[in-house]
Amino acid sequence: MPAPPQGVSAAEFAAALRKFETAVGEQWVFKSDEDVALYRDAYSPERDEPTERLASAAVAPVTVEQVQQVVRAANEHKIPLYPISTGKNLGYGGSAPILSGSVVVDLKRMNRILAVDAGRCQAVVEPGVSYFDLYRYIQERDLEVWIDTPDPGWGSVVGNALDHGVGYTYGQYRDHFGSHCGMEVVLPSGDLMRTGMAALANDASWADYKYGYGPYVAGLFGQANFGIVTKMGFWLLPRPEAYRRGTVSVPKRRDIVALVEHVNYLENLGLIGMPGFRSPLGFAQAREPELRALVAKPGGPSDEELDRFAESKGLPSWSVELQFYGPEKTIAGSWDYVQQRIGASIPGARFEEGVAYRFPLTAAQQAEVQRVHRLVDIGVPNMSIFAIAGGRTAQNPDSADGGQFYFAPMIPRTGEAILEANRVLGQAYRDAGLPYNQYFSAPACWHYRAFIMITSLPVSRLDPEINRRSRAAFRAIAQVAAEHGWGEYRSPPFGVDLVASAYSFNDFALRRFCETLKDAVDPNGIIAAGRGGIWPKHLRGSRA
Amino acid sequence: MRTKWLPALTLVCLAGASAARAQPVERDALLTQGKQVYDYWCLPCHGPGLGLPGFNALPGTQQLQIKYRGTSISPLLEERTDLVPVFVKTIVRQGVSFMPQFRKTEISDAELEAMAAYLARTRPPAR
Predict the structure, then answer these.
(1) How far apart are CA A336 and CA A314, in angstroms?
(2) What is the pLDDT of residues B69-86, one digit of tens each?
(3) What is the domain extent for residue B28?
(4) Is the ipTM of this complex over 0.90?
(5) Chain A CB within 8 Å of residue B71 CB
């Protein structure tokens, strides 16, 4: 028998576990130490420390009715629950709860693809469906739709959306919560609710229209704890006729300001998918000792010094890879337009043709995409991103360690903001004793109306000191970011209160409102305590 | 490392003797199931093929290339002839490096048994 959650008697816990077993079957309630250990966060930066967030047990329903029974039993016995979908949100908690002692509600077995309508470009799925699953379903039926996938293909379509996860194609699709349409939720009472058009008794338009009638409450179920989502509708892309890439490079450091304005214009008009900003000058640091010396000099280099170095080596200061999806002639025209527009505006701008394909791809073309680009750019889920998740490297070939979590502040989508964030975050990282590519870091553009200055921080299975250093750095840098108006869009479990605390306008009015909702909707505080920085009343005193 | 796994090897040799007595049809079904589990859960990281641009292999394969550098051990798990089921099962349930452990809702004990048997299928019989 596992230890009960804090504040729950052994008898109450045992009674609840028996009810869970009645609901889902004995073999789907995990109580042994060995089984519960499988719910540890594999990338926990608190591993083996007293604060590591550990489940007390896990329960794995396979139907909505079973989820309702579990929630009702938990309410009766005041058992904290923590729902996971596929449990692969690595870097953001994985399969572990935020509140230790919670019973994980593992929804992996709820893995039905309920509908894919290629004509209406939509799907309805359960939480256990991975991007791999949905992609295979579509491929096997040769449906002319695409999914927008995040980097790790084994993640849950539902779970990723609920954590505001992201992908790589057009903005309206790569915002995965934004591309959802209609959801079904088991409320903390055990009641079942649907949102949008799914709330109609006849849900014929589940994934056609988000808002239905009345308030749009679906947003309450992302990064929050007002219920357990059991189905979601999603909008899919029509399979485009063609794809092409092109790279724009600009010579001077401050050209990033105009370059971002142009790219924003293209994206806001729906002409491009996710842009990929880089600093070719920054990549040259490894092979250019003169540049390293310039960067390391006291006070740092001036823009003019960096420009002179870039010019001497024929290197651009910045570049952006642009992706175009659509009719072949249309996207060729878009690329021509990009060259005319930016060429007339930024002196010295250069343009390089990338790959260009018609779909479906031949095997050779798919291999080419994999060799020179990323399969996620064309909606193909895979696992390649784990190549940069730590582990053995040429420099450290005997490391048996790996994993990471992320510091991901949102900054304005301007070139000025990139330069400012690099200056401020560079200093903050230096103060924290961690490396940061201060002059050359480029933003991620996943959420298409803002930049994410994401960095990874290492975690260790073996060395708690690495974890302590990473946690301390996260706290220090998040504080600096908040002072500059940059809040994170996502958080590892240990950081939820810190991240939420940055959203402090009017004496934390947002948090107070969420807590009012929490108390009304989940008076026993059983669902996902701490998620989104929202705690039930009886645990608010322990907020970090 | 080798010493550490000796007791496990002994156990597996005994288990292998039992598996070897299984009816051929049952064993074929087990290995078929094992390959299906492997293809679904392991291949995306441990298969052949390219990884991210700049990496010459998928993440799991690339890690094992580095681990077994300078040896004749294949970085592709399906080509290995030295894998023993208990080792496979331990890695799957405990994780290693950046590979997380897998829960029983993902890979059940029976599926793991089949997958481990599949990866150990070419191991020379115990003497």
Answers:
(1) 24
(2) 999 999 999 999 999 999
(3) 24-119
(4) yes
(5) no
